[in-house]
TrEMBL record:
One of its GO terms (molecular function) is carboxypeptidase activity. The lineage of its organism: Bacteria, Bacillati, Actinomycetota, Actinomycetes, Micrococcales. The chain crosses the membrane at residues 36-56. This is D-alanyl-D-alanine carboxypeptidase-like protein. The keyword Membrane applies. It comes from Myceligenerans xiligouense. Keywords: Carboxypeptidase, Hydrolase, Membrane, Protease, Transmembrane, Transmembrane helix. It holds the Pfam family VanY. Residues 1-16 have a biased composition (Pro residues). GO terms for biological process: proteolysis. Residues 1-28 are annotated as: Disordered. The keyword Protease applies. Residues 260-367 form the D-alanyl-D-alanine carboxypeptidase-like core domain. CDD domains: Peptidase_M15 (cd14814).
Amino acid sequence: MTQTAFPPPAAEPPLFPEAASAKKPGKRRRGRHNTVIVSVLALLLAVTVGAAYWFLEREAAGLARQAESADTLLTQSEGRVADPATRQALAEQLTAADDVLDGTAFVDRLPGQAAEATEDLIAASDGVWASMVERARGDITTGRDQLEGAMARAEKVYAATESLDGDELTRSALRSALDSAEVTHTRTRDDRLAGAALVQLEQAAGDLGARRAELSSTTDSMISAQDAATCPAPDQLWTPESGRIPDQRLAPVPWDTRYRVRADILDSLIALNDAFRAQFGTDLTVNSAYRSLADQTGLYDPSSPIAAAPGCSTHGLGLAVDLGGGIQTFGTPEHEWMRANAPAHGWLHPGWAAPDGRVPEAWHWQHEKSPAETL
């Protein structure tokens, strides 16, 4: 029986034609999604890189500003610190900062590296500032001590010139300088400068130095004026201490305790006496040594050049002795021995007392610590 061939069944139309047609562009949509994701990631990466760049640049700018400030401080602090090591530490931190800014490529710079260098610079700068404050306070302490010494000397001169014929205008200027010094001394006490800024401390130290210089100059002027009025001879010098040496600064001559010299030169006189006794078999004959102001006043005769005016004699300083036992006569063996040997022990025969001097006094010998004008 012959079979009849039937054609294959026709494909049935889709139930929802629009759904079938929608499946075809699916691959393109997924491609667009991938593109968006890549773009977003790229954008995020760009933002991250930009933020990192901005952060590093900001750190570097801060370090550069701090380095500039530290460099200025390093220059200005020269000679103004208590501890030079603080400036050395700051210089080293500046070098380290330069290495970060100029010696490290930007791409190799790590976040926080510049910030750390900035902190190190700040710490080193603080160390310099603290050392400058310490130096200023130390200068104030030294300045106050020096001013106190100048004030004591000025007060001594002021008191010693009372009732003396002299330059009253200069004496009035000395009183004014003393008063100004007292004001500055009080104003620079520690309790007055507690919490003071560096500029105030350095100003205070400068004021102390200025007051001391002014007071010392005015005191010297008063001494010169009084010297001119009281001690006209060029080999004499008026001093406020003359005849006013405290007892504790004087010492008796061991072999004749009636006489005293300044304690700090006693050993040299003893050594000279030992050498003289070894040569001549006897001690030095002392006829005069330290003289108080009253002693000198009693000896002084304006009509005679033998005794200096009160305040003008090295006897009043405890630095001179009058000797006998043959020394009091020029040309004797004793006198010639003294001329040859006394200088080795610090004792001199001044030019004004030489045979051709202003007042020939073979007996007068004085220590090398005497004022230069009197030698």
